[in-house]
Structures are given as structure tokens and as C-alpha cells.
Amino acid sequence: MTGVGVRVLYRFVLIIEIEKSTNKERVVYMAKVYFIGAGPGDPELLTIKGKRIIDSSGVIIYAGSLVNAAVLEGCKEDAKIYNSASMNLDEVLEVTVNAINEGKDVARVHTGDPSIYGAIREQIDPLEEQSIECEVIPGVSSFTASAAAMKKEFTLPNVSQTVICTRMEGRTPVPEEEALEKLASHKASMAIFLSVGMIDKVIEKLTVHYPVTTPVAIVQRATWPDQKILIGTLENIAQKVASENITKQAQILVGDFLGDEYELSKLYDKSFTHMFREGK
Ligand SMILES: C[S@@+](CC[C@H](N)C(=O)[O-])C[C@H]1O[C@@H](n2cnc3c(N)ncnc32)[C@H](O)[C@@H]1O
Q1: Whose CA is nearest to atom 21 of ligand 1?
Q2: Which of 251, 253, 254 to mutate to test the pocket of ligand 1 (most atoms within 8 A of CB)?
């Protein structure tokens, strides 16, 4: 026979199961903070796990500047919802810790995938220091969503086998070793975040190594109903960006993977033998 109880340990609310014969207690539930990747915009790109947690959490804090509020549809009627766009780190942490103290799960909803420019580490560390359990649920990043919108593959055989995700230095510094012109020397496929507002500078740095004929795509608000795509080369893309007045919420994709020359993969080559198939 087991019973159910509630115990306050330190300051956390725990749901416990009590084995009647032995009187032993087992923690079956403790509130937790979930960092959830909401995906690039289209609410159907939220993971099933992310949706389940959003729908069952007592408190939701979402990055309203980029997260599509439609991902919150289906949440509990009495869930408290906060838009972190107007909050600072201390305020976010305060709301989070208060929720955990009340025994409520927190869905902290970030745009794209939380591991890329998500500012999650600065939240997880102080929470874990207070013994608050955290979990990260990945999401579809805007850089892969942008490649999908273009129906392109970053890693084309004999074109590039490397994707560089980066940004231009702005108010946030970039380590010197990762300066855009240094990364450009690899001539790999690139996805440049947070930089379309500085497109002239981006082009100046990229053309130190990439030929000016290198293809470029600007994908603004990938997967949203108002998604916009501009296609050009390093020579003419800045002009197109200016005439379309694109200053934010865009990916800059760069590299010959956007072109039409490539080799077929070994994986599906009929003469190629691998673990699951004998070559003919
Ligand atoms: C703070 S970063 C967050 C990135 C996010 N964690 C991700 O994985 O996509 C914001 C930048 O991501 C890019 N971004 C976010 N959503 C986008 C979208 N739907 N389409 C194109 N770029 C997007 C833009 O470069 C924007 O400036």
C-alpha cells in the first residue's frame, strides 16, 4: 500500500509517495525549470516534448520579441505568462525561483534552439546553485529553418563539409580569433546571425577571402507567414537588403552550397559499400 503526501524540504515543495508498511518516503515530483526551444516561428516546428511541457507548466516565460505566441496556445488556463522581452535577468530569475518555491514547473521558452545565442547559461547556473533542477529541450534553429526555406544543404560533397554559425561583432564582442574575416578564410558554408543590420560591414569582411561571386541568401523571419528571401552574391546583396529595408530577424547564408555545383554523396552511391548495404 502506498499513500501520497506533500513535503516541504528546505524551501521546495515535493510530492512524495509513502510506503505504508515501511513508512518510507519517495520523492515522485519536484518542480523543475525547462528551457524550451520554440523553433523559428511556425508553431508546428515546436517539439512534441516542448509542447507537452508548455501545456502543463504553471508558469511560462517566453522571449516575446522572437517567439511566436501561438506556441503558448493550449497552456493551462491558470498558467501565469511573462514576456521576457521587457525583463532583465534578475527579474526572470526572481519569477522562476518564486514559481519553483510554489511547486510550479516553469517553461522558459526561447526562440529557435536555446543553445545558440539563447543566453541560457546565465540562467541555468544561478538556478542550479540553488539546487533547482533544470532541463533543456532543443528546438529547430533559425539557421536550419533558413536552409530548409531555401531547400539547400550546407554540407554538399566537394563543396563544403563544414557549417560556421557566427555573428558580426556588435555591442556584444566576438573573440578576436573568431573575427568574421578570419572565419571567412575557410570558405565554408556560413550562417550569420544577428548581423543583417550591419550588412555592409559583413560583406567587407567576407570578401577578404570569399570571391565576390559567392552566392548569398538573406532569409528574414524564416517559417513565419511573412517570411522573405533575397538571393544574390557578395557583390550585390547589400543593395538588395537596403532596398527591401531588412534590418533585423534575418539569417545571412553564405557559400557555394547555395550554388548548383556539387558531387553525389557516397552514402547513396550504388558502388559504395557500407555497414548497411553491399555496393553493386
Ligand atoms: C538572439 S538570436 C537567437 C537565435 C536562436 N536561438 C536560433 O537558434 O535561431 C536572434 C537571431 O536569430 C536569427 N533568427 C531568429 N529567428 C529567425 C527567423 N525566424 N528567421 C531568420 N532568422 C532568425 C536572427 O539572425 C536573429 O537576429
Answers
A1: 250
A2: 251
Burial class (CB in 10 A: 0-12, 13-18, 19+), 252: buried
- Give exposure, 147-184, as e/b (b: 16+ Cβ within 10 Å): bbbbebbbebeebbeebbbbbbbeeeeeeeeeebeebb
Bridge partners, 94 (sequence order): none
> How far apart are the C-alpha atoms of 279 and 176, rounded to whole Å?
47
What single-letter DSSP state applies at residue 69?
A: G
Residue matched to cell numbers 509513502: 18
Is 139:46 a contact under the CB 8 Å cutoff? yes
Which ligand 1 atom is the nearest neighbour of the CA of 140?
8
1 half-sphere exposure, CB direction, 13 A CA radius = 5
- Sheet strands (E) in 102-153: 106-110, 134-137
Bridge partners (DSSP) of residue 5 are 16
Say what the pTM is: 0.90
Whose C-alpha lies nearest to ligand 1, atom 7? 112
Q: What is the pLDDT along the chain (280 residues), one digit of tens a residue?
A: 566 666 555 556 677 778 888 888 776 678 999 999 999 999 999 999 999 999 999 999 999 999 999 999 999 999 999 999 999 999 999 999 999 999 999 999 999 999 999 999 999 999 999 999 999 999 999 999 999 999 999 999 999 999 999 999 988 999 999 999 999 999 999 999 999 999 999 999 999 999 999 999 999 999 999 999 999 999 999 999 999 999 999 999 999 999 998 888 777 777 878 777 788 8
